Amino acid sequence: MSFTSFFKKRPHKEENNIVVIGTPTNVNHDIHVTVDEKGLVTGLPSAWMRQIGTQITKDEQRENPLVVKQVLQYYHFSIKKGNQERPEFKHIVTERDIVEESKQIDLYTQSKDAHQSKDSLSDSDKEQKEINRCSYPVRPPRKIDGSNLIQTKNLAQNLVDLTLVENEEVEFRDKSGSSADLFGDDDVSRRRSGLTDEDYMIEIRKICNTGNPDDYYERSHKDLGSGASGLVFAATCKKTGEWVAIKDIDMTKQHKKDLLLSEIKIMKNFKHKNLVNFLDAFVVNDDHLYVVMELLDGGPLTDVVTETVMKEGQIAAVCFEVLKAIDYLHERGTIHRDIKSDNVLLGMDGTVKVTDFGFCANVIGNEQRETMVGTPYWMAPEVVTRQKYGKKVDIWSLGIMIVEMLDGEPPYLREPPLRALYLITANGRPKITRWNTLSEKLKSFIDLTLQVDVDKRATAKELLLHEFLDEKMELKTLTPLIRAAKKMLHKT
C-alpha cells in the first residue's frame, strides 16, 4: 500500500490573526486547610471534601492532614490537566520541567478551576465519573501453579555487555522549548519566539528524511492502534527486512509545532540498545508526519510478570537492561517518569527495551489515557509532596517494577488511584509479600531502590555496580517465558 496515496492532500487553510487578551492578574482563590476539633480536614473545595469521605478514613485524616491535602491537590491537578490536553506525543521531561510543573500545581490550588464545583453536586458527580472512567484498569490476579514454572536449560556462559552509542551533546531546551510551553499559553510562547506554524514546518522538513517513505518501508495491513494523533501501523524495512512501527501525526491537529521540532532534534540523537529508538521521520503530503520507530515482537514485560514466575536471575537480567536505559536518559538530563512493566518491551530473543517517552510513546497503539502524570501505582512519594523531585523517581519506579516481577502486580493495584496515592505518600515503602523468601542480594538491591529519603536512594550508576546484577541470567532465558505468556493470553 502506498504511503503517499493513503492521505489525500488537504487544501491549505489561512489562519486569521486573532487578538489574544491576557488573563487577569493578582486573582486569588485561597485555600486555607485546617483540622477541626474532631481532627478532620476542612477548608478544601467541597468537591474534594466529598472524595475524602469515600476514600480516606477519618483516622487517616487525623493522622496525616498534610498528606491528604497534598494528595488531593496533585490528584485534581492531574485530572484537570489530563482532561484539557490531548498530546500527540509524550514530551521528554527534564528537571526544569518538574520545577515548572510544581509551580503550576501551586497555582492550580489557588485557581477558579479548583473551586468551580464547590457548590454544585451535579458538577462534582460528573467530575467523579470522569475520574472513574480514566482510572487505571485492574489486572486479573496472577495464577501461581506448576504450569507457570518454566524450566530453562543449556544457558550460554556469558552475557554480552551492550555498550552505549556515543552521541554529540544535545541542547535540550531553548527559550522557546517545552519548559515554557508545557504548561503555559501556546499563543504567548508563539509571540515570544516570533515564529509561525509555517516557519516551524519549514524547520521540521529540513531535519526529516526528504525521500519517499515507499522507497524505504513496505506498509503492512496490520494496524497497531489509533488515537487522537492518528494511526500507528506496522511496516517492514525494505533494506533489512526488520519490522518497524510507524506513527502518523496529523499536523493539522498539532498545535505545538515548536515542541514537535524540539523533540525531533532530541530523539534523533537518542540512540541506545535498551531504548525503543526513533529511526526516521517523513513529512507526507505536507500535513502528516510519519515517525518510524523500532518494533519488538515479544510484547510488554507485563504479560510475562502476570502469567509466569520469574527467577531472581531473570529479574536481575531485566533490571540490568532497564537500568542501562535509565542511566543513559539521566546522563542526558531526561527523566522517564513512567517506568513500569507496561513500558518495557521484549523481543522474542529476550531483548529488553524501554519505551513510552518522546515519539516512542504508544508504539503499540495503546493510547488509553492515564489518570496521573505518570502512573500512580509506580509513583514515588516525592511526586506528590514535591520534595527533592528529580531523576530518582525512576529508581523508585524500578523498585516497584521488581515487586511486579515478584508478585505479578504493583502494591495497591486493587485500590482506586486516589487512595493508592494516599497510601504511597503516607506509608512510603510498601510491604513485599515474598520478602522472607528473597536472597540477601535482592533484598539489598530493593532496599536501595525503595528508600523514601531521596538522598539515601541509589542512582542508576550505583545500582549498575550492585552485586545482585552479577546473578543475571542470559537474556534468552526470557524467551520461554514470553512464549508461555503469549500462549496463555492467546496472542500467538
From TrEMBL:
<feature type="domain" description="CRIB">
    <location>
        <begin position="21"/>
        <end position="34"/>
    </location>
</feature>
<keyword id="KW-0808">Transferase</keyword>
<keyword id="KW-0479">Metal-binding</keyword>
<dbReference type="Pfam" id="PF00786">
    <property type="entry name" value="PBD"/>
</dbReference>
<feature type="binding site">
    <location>
        <position position="247"/>
    </location>
    <ligand>
        <name>ATP</name>
    </ligand>
</feature>
<keyword id="KW-0067">ATP-binding</keyword>
<dbReference type="InterPro" id="IPR011009">
    <property type="entry name" value="Kinase-like_dom_sf"/>
</dbReference>
<dbReference type="GO" id="GO:0005524">
    <property type="term" value="F:ATP binding"/>
</dbReference>
<dbReference type="InterPro" id="IPR000719">
    <property type="entry name" value="Prot_kinase_dom"/>
</dbReference>
<dbReference type="InterPro" id="IPR051931">
    <property type="entry name" value="PAK3-like"/>
</dbReference>
<protein>
    <recommendedName>
        <fullName>non-specific serine/threonine protein kinase</fullName>
        <ecNumber>2.7.11.1</ecNumber>
    </recommendedName>
</protein>
<dbReference type="GO" id="GO:0004674">
    <property type="term" value="F:protein serine/threonine kinase activity"/>
</dbReference>
<keyword id="KW-0460">Magnesium</keyword>
<dbReference type="GO" id="GO:0046872">
    <property type="term" value="F:metal ion binding"/>
</dbReference>
<dbReference type="InterPro" id="IPR036936">
    <property type="entry name" value="CRIB_dom_sf"/>
</dbReference>
<feature type="domain" description="Protein kinase">
    <location>
        <begin position="218"/>
        <end position="469"/>
    </location>
</feature>
<dbReference type="Pfam" id="PF00069">
    <property type="entry name" value="Pkinase"/>
</dbReference>
<dbReference type="InterPro" id="IPR017441">
    <property type="entry name" value="Protein_kinase_ATP_BS"/>
</dbReference>
<feature type="region of interest" description="Disordered">
    <location>
        <begin position="107"/>
        <end position="145"/>
    </location>
</feature>
<keyword id="KW-0547">Nucleotide-binding</keyword>
<dbReference type="InterPro" id="IPR000095">
    <property type="entry name" value="CRIB_dom"/>
</dbReference>
<feature type="compositionally biased region" description="Basic and acidic residues">
    <location>
        <begin position="112"/>
        <end position="132"/>
    </location>
</feature>
